[in-house]
Amino acid sequence: MTLTPLLDNAPGNYGVFAVNLRTMKTVAYHEKDVFPSASTIKIPIMIELYRRVEEENLSLDAMVTMRAEDQVDGSGVLFDLTPGHAYSLRDLNTLMITVSDNTATNLLIDFLGVDAINSTMRRLGIHDTELVRRLQRVPTERASVNRATAYDMAQLMVRLAQGEAISLAVSNRMIEVMKRCQAPVSITTVAPQQSYTGQPPTVTVAHKTGSLSDACHDVGVVYMSDGLSYAAALMSQGAPYDKLAPILRRVGRALPALLR
Predict the structure, then answer these.
(1) Fewest CB within 10 A of the end CB: N or C in the chain?
(2) What is d(CA 176, CA 180) in angstroms, rounded to the nearest whole number?
(3) Could you tell me the fold of the domain covering 4-259?
């Protein structure tokens, strides 16, 4: 069983890479094709932030003031809030990952620097994923789009899951933030959570999505109660979002069986 029958005739283009974290068995489909990253580029930004926490003693309590000119629309909440207030790096990162706040993302990009974020990606062996520019600031011509591959993003997820994205301590902290992402999940079929005390969830997901009018992505780590854990990156473009999203969900449903 492979993804080829599912994806070869689907509308749009797809890139998939998934890794069983115990056996290292992989599932791949056009995994090194380059896609506009959309909001999945926020993962490298978070990793650079936590690198500085670990290696340069940066405090997540450091404050950054949001000016009116910093506010950009799209996803998130800071665009609708009053400028002139200061927010901690911790809160900006939480907003960036959990509700994909674009203004928070740009504040972090300005604080950290584009070159530093890309340098850390190269240090981690990530070569085809790149932050080119701030979000929502210039027209999204192809030449100026932030970009990523499913292979690169899945490798970042493996490093986070295995405690190798800077260090075990900060990798675990980043995973915990990603578990609070409020976007719909595509990288697996999430079973309903048990509501009574003492029953663990059937599936736990730490992930980050990204979307454009003609692109849909989901990258993250899945922990299943039967012992299967895997990292995955699903990327797509070239068709309307509402056509791509159901296909990604079908891929996510297929991954556990393919990775066992």
Answers:
(1) N
(2) 7
(3) Beta-lactamase (3.40.710)
Which two tokens mark 174?
A: 């980043």
Q: Determine whether 235 is exposed, middle or buried from the number of CB atoms within 10 Å of its CB (0-12, 13-18, 19+).
A: buried
Domains in the chain: boundaries: 4-259
**Rounded CA gap, 159 and 67, in Å?**
35
* CA distance from start to end of the chain: 12
Q: Minimal CA–CA distance to 206: which of 189, 194, 192, 222?
A: 222
> DSSP characters for 160-202?
HHTT-SS-HHHHHHHHHHHTT--SPP-SS-PPPPP-STT---S
Task: Say what the alpha-carbon torsion angle 243, 205, 160, 75 is, to the nearest 10 degrees.
Answer: 50
DSSP 69: G
* Structural tokens at position 188: 């697996």
